Write a sequence for this structure.
């Protein structure tokens, strides 16, 4: 009898545990259903706002949907689109820029989702972001990834063609700029060489003129010295001539006096 009572109690305990488990699972299921319902309502309202181009309000509804279900891929994708429409993708410079945030969301979503269509759309929008930033290599790769998930996406195919054309134009422009820069550098080198040669020619001319001027000065000095020596010799010669003339006159006068004296003695 005691054993039967114990069996009944144990059986009731097991039944009670099963009931609690069922009720807990039901509550969890009910909460999940409620969360899914809220998520769908927020997404539906966000989509309506998005169509009205009320992107800031769309952002709010998408965040509410993510609060109801943090793993909601659709809410994440819609949030990224709402952010993209509130920012200029070409000015995505910092982490606080909406485009930067949207790009990160789309990259994560494209890499993790099992839905090929959602992945395709994520890659498509990533391609648009890179295209607007003139990052054509990355843009081309994103459009190709989009077409790998959805080969029927004509918009992605057309954008891929445009990105490839833009890349060619960009490369051509870069080549032209490089050629122009090389040409300018060559012209500058030539100007520098011409300027150096001109400076060297000017210096040689100045040295030549200075040498000529020095030679002229030396010639003038030598000429002046020569004239001075000649003058000195002329003066000395004149003095000698004057002295000789004086001596000659003295001799002549002495001769006259001697003659007179002789004649006088004779008369006597």
């Amino acid at each position: 009898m005691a054993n039967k009572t114990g069996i009944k109690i144990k059986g009731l305990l097991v039944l009670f545990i099963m009931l609690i488990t069922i009720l807990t699972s039901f509550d969890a299921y009910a909460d999940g259903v409620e969360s899914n319902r809220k998520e769908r309502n927020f997404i539906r309202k966000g989509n309506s706002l998005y169509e009205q181009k009320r992107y800031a309000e769309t952002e709010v509804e998408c965040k509410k949907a993510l609060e109801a279900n943090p793993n909601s891929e659709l809410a994440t994708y819609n949030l990224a689109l709402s952010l993209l429409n509130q920012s200029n993708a070409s000015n995505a410079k910092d982490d606080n820029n909406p485009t930067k945030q949207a790009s990160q969301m789309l990259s994560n979503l494209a890499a993790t989702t099992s839905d090929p269509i959602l992945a395709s759309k994520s890659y498509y929008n990533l391609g648009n972001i890179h295209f607007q930033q003139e990052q054509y290599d990355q843009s081309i790769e994103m459009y190709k990834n989009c077409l790998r998930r959805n080969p029927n996406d004509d918009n992605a195919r057309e954008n891929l063609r445009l990105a490839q054309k833009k890349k060619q134009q960009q490369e051509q422009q870069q080549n032209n700029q490089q050629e122009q820069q090389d040409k300018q550098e060559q012209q500058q080198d030539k100007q520098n060489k011409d300027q150096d040669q001109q400076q060297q020619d000017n210096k040689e001319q100045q040295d030549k003129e200075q040498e000529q001027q020095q030679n002229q000065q030396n010639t003038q000095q030598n000429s002046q010295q020569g004239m001075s020596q000649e003058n000195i010799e002329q003066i000395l010669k004149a003095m000698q001539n004057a002295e000789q003339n004086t001596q000659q006159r003295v001799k002549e006068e002495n001769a006259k006096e001697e003659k007179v004296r002789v004649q006088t003695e004779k008369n006597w």
In short: Residues 154-267 form the longest helix (114 residues). Confidence is low (pLDDT under 50) at residues 25-31. The two ends are 224 Å apart (CA to CA).
